[in-house]
């Protein structure tokens, strides 16, 4: 499969180029708004061509990977879909739910595969957690605690910490991942949220810390903490049920690391998991789906739903009210 990279991004450079090639794909071209940056990126990564024109990139590829700033995802995805290309898009899919629904529906109508690059559900740790929950090892889930408070590295700051028009802030950057992960484990969608943001001094016009509580249709509650300013907190997820609890530490990351522990009445045991590359699995499943086999790890509807939760968290924090999550009719 021939790919075009829409965005000469850090995630493309560090993860996705390797993942695409590991799946047997060929990267034909990269798009950058800065011609010199695009040329340098292409040369550095052995990509044959670079361009500043989207139509030029779309000519001669089968699929695109979109990793530009968030406000560009919608028009770029719609152009790719109109050109008959499969789309793997970074989260969040768009700046609002209506646009996200539109792009996903357009791909479906065109018979194209649309995937959201939610990497965490591809981790061996999270697959093992999901298997344990489905096997009934903790009984009925009562609550979840997600802690995803990190120090955003300097080379990733830029628009993420000072540009609300581009979709900056910790909510669109991290809450979407946690929303997808909770949905993946619980097989249900948050119904309502309450939230508060804080400014620890890193963000300029955007939030750099947020805490929220989500109610689930089953009655379970989710408590989530996301941050750009916590250098030593570590990350993880705890899932507590009527028959046991799962404690997963250092698993909210793109690397196949961490520890998963199950605690029940009979004692404590480590849950083993595979240490495969998360992004390799994501691209492999997307590629297979484009070839008519299976589905992406996270499809377009997953991307819509994670965006909807993040936007509800933002609205709850802004208004101080309890906000129902609007999934745009999907």
TrEMBL record:
One GO term in the molecular function aspect is: oxidoreductase activity
**Highest taxon of the source?**
Bacteria
Where does the record place the GFO/IDH/MocA-like oxidoreductase domain? 127-246
Q: Does the keyword Protease apply?
A: no
Task: Report domain Gfo/Idh/MocA-like oxidoreductase N-terminal positions.
Answer: 1-118
Instruction: Return the InterPro entries for the record.
Output: Gfo/Idh/MocA-like_OxRdtase_N (IPR000683), Gfo/Idh/MocA_oxidrdct_glycsds (IPR050463), GFO_IDH_MocA-like_dom (IPR055170), NAD(P)-bd_dom_sf (IPR036291)
Q: Does the keyword Nucleus apply?
A: no
**PANTHER family in alphabetical order:** BCDNA.GH03377 (PTHR43818:SF11)
This one is known as 1,5-anhydro-D-fructose reductase (1,5-anhydro-D-mannitol-forming)
Origin species, per record, is: Paracoccus chinensis
């Amino acid at each position: 499969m021939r790919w075009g990279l829409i965005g000469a991004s850090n995630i493309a450079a560090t993860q996705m180029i390797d993942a695409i090639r590991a799946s047997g794909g060929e990267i034909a071209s990269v798009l950058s708004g800065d011609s010199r940056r695009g040329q340098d990126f292409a040369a550095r990564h052995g990509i044959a061509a670079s361009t500043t024109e989207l139509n030029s990139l779309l000519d001669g590829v089968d699929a695109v990977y979109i990793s530009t700033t968030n406000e560009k995802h919608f028009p770029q995805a719609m152009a790719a879909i109109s050109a008959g290309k499969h789309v793997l898009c970074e989260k969040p899919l768009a700046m609002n739910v209506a646009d996200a629904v539109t792009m996903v529906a357009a791909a479906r109508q065109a018979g194209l595969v649309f995937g959201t690059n939610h990497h965490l559900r591809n981790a061996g740790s999270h697959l093992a957690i999901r298997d344990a929950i489905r096997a009934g090892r903790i009984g009925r889930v009562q609550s979840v605690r997600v802690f995803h408070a990190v120090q955003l590295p300097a080379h990733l700051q830029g628009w993420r910490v000072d540009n609300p028009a581009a979709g900056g802030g910790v909510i669109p950057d991290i809450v979407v991942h946690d929303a997808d992960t909770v949905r993946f484990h619980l097989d249900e969608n948050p119904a309502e949220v309450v939230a508060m943001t804080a400014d620890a001094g890193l963000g300029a016009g955007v939030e750099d810390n947020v805490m929220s509580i989500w109610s689930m249709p089953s009655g379970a509650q989710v408590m989530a903490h996301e941050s750009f300013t916590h250098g030593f907190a570590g990350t993880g997820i705890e899932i507590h049920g009527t028959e046991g609890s799962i404690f997963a530490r250092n698993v909210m990351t793109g690397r196949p690391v961490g520890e998963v522990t199950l605690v029940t009445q009979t004692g404590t045991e480590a849950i083993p998991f595979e240490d495969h590359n998360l992004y390799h699995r994501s691209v492999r499943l997307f590629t297979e789906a484009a070839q008519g086999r299976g589905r992406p790890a996270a499809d377009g509807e997953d991307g819509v739903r994670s965006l909807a939760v993040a936007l509800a968290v933002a609205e709850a924090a802004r208004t101080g009210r309890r906000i129902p999550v609007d999934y745009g009719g999907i």
